[in-house]
Design goal:
Blueprint lengths: L5 H9 L3 E11 L15 E3 L5 H10 L3 H6 L11 H6 L3 E8 L4 E9 L6 E3 L3 E2 L5 H17 L5 E6 L3 H9 L3 E10 L4
Parallel strand pairs: 5-7
Antiparallel strand pairs: 1-7, 1-8, 2-3, 3-4, 4-5, 4-6
Helix pairs in contact: 5-6
Length: 187
């Protein structure tokens, strides 16, 4: 629900819903400004399917327990959806920052002729990754989208993902729409 819609939130809370997390839509209106793609980023490489389990663990460490209980993070979420990609004629690519001991940051980019914006995942960023590396990771994904002629970029990033949010802002994204996820515990 929109964060600004206090009457709706009050109604949902009266019938037992509770706030779970705040999330924001981040937008970049001029992806062409991310070209050329950054080079020589320490530890940057393409995502490999074997990276998913380690990255899911990095993501889980940054999520509050209540959120993880309601919306568990699994490594399957990091490998994309072949069915959805086929239905929307989507091209996607993902990158990681790997310090030599395994991946510590990740972002996925997807472009489709069926949508008006390319989509970036919420970046996963471990505390050992520098802000410069995290921003460069997002810039690489944005440049890839720009090279695929995406007219704009968007991403949904939870409030608790401070490192990911900082990387988005560092790459030129801005927060345009805060929303709340509410849930109702089932007895």
């Amino acid at each position: 629900m929109l964060a600004s819609n206090a009457p709706a939130r009050a109604l949902y809370e009266r019938i037992g819903y509770r706030p779970l997390r705040a999330t924001s839509y981040f937008v970049h209106e001029h992806p062409e400004t991310l070209l050329p793609e950054p080079t020589n980023v320490a530890g940057l490489r393409r995502f490999q399917s074997g990276d998913a389990k380690a990255l899911a663990e990095v993501a889980r460490r940054g999520v509050p327990t209540e959120v993880q209980t309601v919306l568990p993070i699994t490594h399957h979420e990091l490998t994309g959806s072949a069915w959805a990609d086929q239905m929307l004629a989507t091209e996607s690519a993902a990158w990681v920052i790997d310090d030599g001991s395994g991946p510590k940051a990740w972002v996925l980019a997807a472009v489709s002729p069926a949508t008006e914006a390319a989509h970036l995942s919420a970046p996963i960023v471990d505390g050992s990754v520098t802000p410069e590396q995290a921003t460069a990771l997002v810039r690489v994904a944005g440049a890839w989208c720009a090279a695929h002629r995406a007219p704009r970029l968007m991403a949904m990033v939870p409030e608790e993902n401070g490192r990911g949010r900082d990387a988005m802002v560092g790459a030129g994204f801005h927060d345009v729409l805060p929303i709340w996820t509410l849930y109702r515990p089932v007895d």
